[in-house]
Amino acid sequence: MKTAIWHEQPQDTTEGSVETGILIEPIFRWDPQQLGTRPAVYVKRNGMRIERYGINDGLQTGLGVDAAGELKINEGEQHFVGVLGSHTLFCIGRAGAETEILAGEVFREIQHFAPVLRRDLKLKKLAVTEVTEPQQLEEHDQHFAVAVVLGWAYFEKWRLVPQAPWLKGFNIGAKPAGETNEAWLGIKN
Fold this sequence. Notes:
Helix content: 10-25%
Structural class: alpha+beta
Mean pLDDT: 80
Strand content: 25-35%
Largest sheet: 6 strands, mixed
Low-confidence stretches: 5-10, 12-18
Number of strands: 6
Shape: elongated
Distance between the termini: 79 Å
Number of helices: 2
């Protein structure tokens, strides 16, 4: 695995080809012919679900009390939901042990940097939830895969602020003959 570390400048190998380290790609770029001899990590986003916390996703909060003792509130309707999801990182190697080592490194890096990732990505939760056992790939029987599942959660918050007064009513009728549109609509020039 030490030869597969990410390099700033890839090194030349004895065969004359360039060593490019660990291949990291989204799952939709999966190509079994691309695997070759280097390990790979393919990233797949799994489904997301919404967790509801209030009636109509509403949130009733106060911002303290003003000088007159009245409760201060934000203008508009505040809403929020929890968004939960996960990503699966498929660690692929030519041997079962190589794949286990790669999956272990991916697990430890995510586990160790989770507090920084949580802060920078503004997540409420981020953790490895599962590391599967090695499986032989069906498409490429000379390779093994281990899935590292990463779960995450964040809050989606928004506020609806009225930009104009509510429409109180309107009339529907035919325009009298000979009247201009402007006059009928009450528009003054």
